[in-house]
Write a structure and sequence with these properties.
globular; about 575 residues; DNA ligase i, domain 1; alpha+beta; 4 domains; 21 strands; 18 helices; binds adenosine-5'-triphosphate; seven-stranded mixed sheet; single chain; D-amino Acid Aminotransferase, Chain A, domain 1; seven-stranded antiparallel sheet
Length: about 575
C-alpha cells in the first residue's frame, strides 16, 4: 500500500466524529493492508512506530520540524515558522509549503518505507542526532505528496491525534474478520496479555481469530494490571468471593517488574507502570535484586513505596513523587529508598501463570523471591469470615496504610480487568453518606483565571468521566489547588491544548465551555463531599465541593472512573443515607 493511500484514510478519519464510521473505515483499511503492513499501519494510526510500552520516542520539537520543512521545500525557516504560527498546526503548514515543489515519485512511496524512515528518525540518538533527524524528515517530506506531508509533519510531534484509541482498532479488527464487533472481547483479552496493537493485528490478519492463540506472555512486554472492584462491606466480600487472601493496601506506584537472567549471568530488569510506561530509569534500585530472585526469567506484580530512611516508615505516594521531581532520580534513590511490595507472580521460566489460582501463584512467588531490602513479599492472611477481614483491615489503618486488598483465593490473574476477584477495602462505606472513595477524572479544558490567579493563566478546569470511548463532564474545579500545582497544571495542559473541542467530548453543555480545550490525556484524582443528580453535566451526576487530590500520572484516560462506576457510587451513598447511619 502506498503511504499516499494511507493518508487518504487519515484524512477521512480526521473528518468524522462518528465512532461507527471510524470503525468501518479502519476495517476497510485493514482489509486492503498486506500482512506485513497491517501492524505498521496500526502503529502509524496512533502516531507511533513502536508499541505503547516501548520507551522509544521521536525526541522531536517544533523547531526541528520547522527546519525539516524548510529544508525539504527550500523555504526560509522564518517563513515556515510564521506559517505554523498562523495556522497553529505544523501539518497544515507543511502541506501549504509543499506546493513549491514538483516531484515525480511522490505518490508511490510505500507505507513500509515511510515507517522505516520514521523509525530511524526516532532511533537517531547521541551527537549529531538532531541534524540526522532533520535530514531524514526532510527526505521523507520531499518524497511524498502534499496531503501526506500534513501527516508526516504531525507524527513526530505527537500531534496526529485521530481521535481514537487502541480499543477502536480492536473493534475494527473484529469488523474486518466478521463484519461486526462480536470478536472485540476476545481481541481485548489478548491485548490485555500483550498490549502490542501491531502484533495483535498481524496475528489475526495472518490466521484469523485463531491467530490469537499464539499471543502469549513475553518478558519485556507488560501485561495489563489486574484492578480492584469496590464492595462496601466485609460481609459482602465473603458472600461474593468465599475464601480470600487479605493484604495491606500500600499507597505507592503500581510496578510490574520483568527480570531476565542473560547468558552471561547478568540480570536485565525492566519495570512498567500501570499505564504501560517503561519506568526502568526511575528505579535504579531494581538493578540490585539479582540475589533475591531464584529464577531465570520472571514477571512480578508489585507496589513501589518510598521509605523514610530515618524512621523506616512508608512514605505516601504523593510525597515520594514530589521528592522524585525535586531531587532527580539518582539523589532521590539515595534519599528516599524504594521498597517493592511484591504481591503476585505472572510468569516464571517459560511458563505463564495467569490461569493458575492465586493460592498456587502465591506458593510460587514465595519460592521465587528471597528475603532482602529491595523486594519484599507482601504479607497476607487467608480469611474465611468477615470478622477476620475487618480485623486485618483495621490493623492496616492503624499502621497508617490505606486499607486492605481482598483477593479471591482460587481466582486466576485477570489482566486489565476490574472484576470481583480483587476488591479494595478502604473504609466501610455508607457510614456517613459522604464520598468514601475518590474519582479519577479526565481534564477536558481550563478557564483562564481572574484576580490573583490571572497571573497563572488558569483559574479553574473542567473534568469528566469516561462513557465508552467518550468523556462526559461531572464538575468544574477551581479551589483547593496550591499555587505550585496551578503552574504545573497549566504547563501540562498547554502541552496538549487544541483549537477544537475534541471529538471524544461530544456532549458538553454550553454552560461549561472552557476557554481552552485540551486533549483527553491528564487524569486527576478528585475528592468531594457527595454526588448529586445533575441535568447540566453529561454524566447526569455532579460532585459537590470537589477538591483536587493529585494528578495521576500513572493512569491513562482509559482508566478514568466510568459513568457506570459513578452511578454505583451514587447508589451506595444513597443507601448509606437511607439507612440513616
Ligand atoms: P485508589 O485510587 O483507590 O488507590 P486506584 O484507583 O489506584 O486505587 P484501584 O484499582 O482502585 O486503583 O486499586 C488498586 C491499586 O491499589 C493497584 O493498582 C495498586 O497500585 C494498589 N495496591 C496497593 N496494595 C496492593 C495489593 N496488596 N494488591 C494489589 N494492589 C495493591
Amino acid at each position: 500500500m502506498t503511504f499516499s493511500s494511507l493518508s487518504h484514510y487519515f484524512q477521512k478519519l480526521e473528518q468524522t466524529a462518528s465512532r461507527n464510521t471510524m470503525t468501518m473505515l479502519l476495517a476497510e483499511l485493514f482489509h486492503k493492508a498486506g500482512r506485513d503492513e497491517i501492524g505498521k499501519i496500526c502503529f502509524l494510526l496512533q502516531g507511533r512506530v513502536v508499541p505503547l510500552y516501548d520507551a522509544l520516542e521521536f525526541g522531536v520539537a517544533d523547531k526541528l520540524v520547522t527546519r525539516a520543512i524548510a529544508q525539504a521545500y527550500q523555504v526560509a525557516e522564518s517563513k515556515v515558522a510564521a506559517q505554523i504560527k498562523h495556522v497553529g498546526d505544523a501539518g497544515i503548514a507543511a502541506e501549504q509549503c509543499y506546493h513549491v515543489l514538483e516531484q515525480d515519485n511522490r505518490n508511490t512511496i510505500s507505507v513500509g518505507e515511510v515507517f522505516q524512515q520514521l523509525y530511524q528518525t526516532a532511533r537517531a540518538s547521541g551527537i549529531g542526532s538532531q541534524e540526522q533527524k532533520i535530514t531524514l524528515l526532510a527526505g521523507l517530506l520531499r518524497s511524498i505528496d502534499a496531503l501526506s506531508a500534513r501527516y508526516i509533519a504531525r507524527i513526530p510531534l505527537d500531534k496526529l491525534r485521530l481521535g481514537f484509541s487502541d480499543m477502536t482498532i480492536l473493534d475494527a479488527l473484529s469488523w474486518m474478520l466478521t463484519g461486526d464487533k462480536s470478536l472485540r472481547v476476545r481481541l481485548e483479552e489478548a491485548y490485555n496479555v500483550r498490549p502490542d496493537i501491531g502484533y495483535i493485528a498481524e496475528s489475526v490478519k495472518k490466521d484469523g481469530i485463531h491467530g490469537l492463540s499464539h499471543v502469549s506472555v513475553r518478558v519485556g512486554a507488560p501485561i495489563l494490571a489486574a484492578l480492584c472492584q469496590r464492595l462496601p462491606h466485609a460481609d459482602e466480600m465473603i458472600k461474593k468471593m468465599g475464601e480470600v487472601a487479605v493484604e495491606p493496601k500500600y499507597d505507592g506506584v503500581r510496578t510490574q517488574i520483568h527480570v531476565q537472567r542473560q547468558d552471561n549471568g547478568r540480570l536485565r530488569v525492566q519495570s512498567f507502570s500501570r499505564n504501560l510506561e517503561n519506568t526502568t530509569a526511575m528505579f535504579p534500585e531494581l538493578t540490585h535484586i539479582g540475589a533475591q530472585i531464584h529464577a531465570r526469567e520472571v514477571i512480578l506484580d508489585s507496589e513501589a513505596v518510598g521509605v523514610d530512611p530515618k524512621s523506616g516508615k512508608l512514605i505516601p505516594f504523593q510525597e515520594t513523587m514530589t521528592r522524585k521531581r525535586k531531587h532527580g532520580i539518582d539523589v532521590q534513590s539515595r534519599s528516599v529508598p524504594i521498597r517493592f511490595f511484591v504481591f503476585d507472580i505472572l510468569y516464571k521460566d517459560g511458563e505463564a501463570l495467569l490461569a493458575a489460582p492465586l493460592s498456587e501463584r502465591r506458593k510460587i512467588l514465595e519460592a521465587t523471591v528471597g528475603t532482602g531490602n529491595i523486594l519484599v513479599v507482601s504479607p497476607e492472611i487467608v480469611a474465611e469470615t468477615a470478622e477476620e477481614i475487618r480485623t486485618y483491615h483495621d490493623e492496616q489503618l492503624k499502621r497508617g496504610l490505606e486499607g486492605a486488598v481482598v483477593k479471591k483465593w482460587n481466582s486466576p490473574y485477570e489482566p486489565g480487568r476490574r472484576g470481583f476477584s480483587w476488591v479494595k477495602f478502604k473504609e466501610e462505606e455508607g457510614h456517613t453518606g459522604k464520598l468514601t472513595d475518590t474519582i479519577d477524572a479526565v481534564v477536558m479544558g481550563y478557564y483562564r483565571g481572574e484576580g490573583k490567579r490571572s497571573g497563572f493563566g488558569i483559574g479553574a478546569f473542567l473534568v469528566g468521566v469516561r462513557q465508552n470511548e467518550s468523556f462526559v463532564t461531572i464538575t468544574k474545579i477551581g479551589t483547593g489547588v496550591s499555587d505550585a500545582l496551578w503552574k504545573l497544571l497549566r504547563e501540562r495542559l498547554n502541552a496538549i491544548k487544541t483549537n477544537r473541542q475534541p471529538k471524544a467530548y461530544s456532549q458538553v453543555n454550553k454552560l461549561f465551555t472552557p476557554d481552552v480545550w485540551v486533549e483527553p490525556n491528564i487524569v486527576v484524582e478528585i475528592a468531594g463531599d457527595d454526588l448529586t443528580k445533575s441535568s447540566n453535566h453529561g454524566a447526569g451526576i455532579a460532585v459537590r465541593f470537589p477538591r483536587l487530590v493529585r494528578i495521576r500520572t500513572d493512569k491513562t484516560p482509559r482508566e478514568a472512573t466510568t459513568t457506570g462506576e459513578l452511578n454505583q457510587m451514587y447508589r451506595k451513598q444513597g443507601a448509606g443515607a437511607r439507612r440513616g447511619v
